[in-house]
Design brief:
By secondary structure, the chain is an alpha+beta fold. 48% of the residues lie in helices and 12% in strands. The strands form three sheets. It has a two-stranded antiparallel ribbon with strand order 1-2. α4 packs parallel to α6 and α5 packs across α6. The longest helix is centred in the middle third of the chain and has 23 residues. The protein starts with a helix and ends with a helix.
């Protein structure tokens, strides 16, 4: 049996879903992929993958050396963001635990610049960002972006990709219902196949 990695290599990487470039929280939600044939892929599956994902979005420097506990925190936030997006798309109330998780991530780290005083140059302000808090800052930024997305005008255009088994979310532009051309082609092919079978 072929691995998920081999299956993913058969196809070109999926481009970002519409809205991911503006909203890293949407990219986070879409980092767990449902693939044809009942397969899945997790872009945050290992600490190295999670670190690469964060570095690509300028949320952590390369070479941070994330531990498994950090990758687990990121995957946990992803599930809460996915829950909130799914609730918004379905027009249903959000799970209180998901709202709490987003608020906790946003408030866990200080966001105010601290006042420091240099003996030679005098006072200045700096945002604390110790290496040990890199993941907490990344989680806070992602949670804040998720809150922004859910309360912005874009929220009315949030939708789930209409091409099973794809599980990605997107910000719809026009009538587009798919996260990528590949998903659109797959949906059209499935409809054509269903029509042929219905008439045959």
């Amino acid at each position: 049996m072929r691995s998920v990695e081999e299956l993913m290599m058969d196809e070109a990487p999926l481009p970002p879903a519409p809205g991911e470039s503006e909203h890293p929280s949407l990219a986070l939600a879409n980092s767990a992929l449902a693939l044809p044939g009942g397969h899945t892929a997790d872009l945050l599956g290992t600490p190295a993958q999670a670190e690469q994902w964060l570095a690509q979005r300028d949320l952590a420097p390369e070479g941070t050396g994330l531990a498994e506990v950090c990758a687990t925190q990121l995957r946990s936030l992803r599930e809460q963001v996915r829950s909130l997006l799914a609730s918004r798309v379905a027009g249903q109330p959000a799970l209180p635990a998901a709202v709490t998780a987003i608020n906790d991530a946003m408030t866990r780290v200080p966001t105010a610049s601290l006042l420091l005083w240099d003996e030679k140059t005098g006072p200045y302000r700096v945002t604390p960002h110790p290496t040990t808090a890199i993941v907490e800052h990344a989680l806070a930024a992602l949670a804040s972006d998720a809150a922004d997305l859910l309360t912005s005008p874009d929220a009315t255009r949030l939708t789930a990709c209409a091409s099973p088994p794809c599980n990605r979310f997107l910000v719809r532009h026009g009538r587009r219902q798919w996260c990528s051309t590949r998903c659109g082609d797959r949906a059209r092919a499935a409809r054509a196949y269903a029509r042929r079978n219905a008439t045959g």
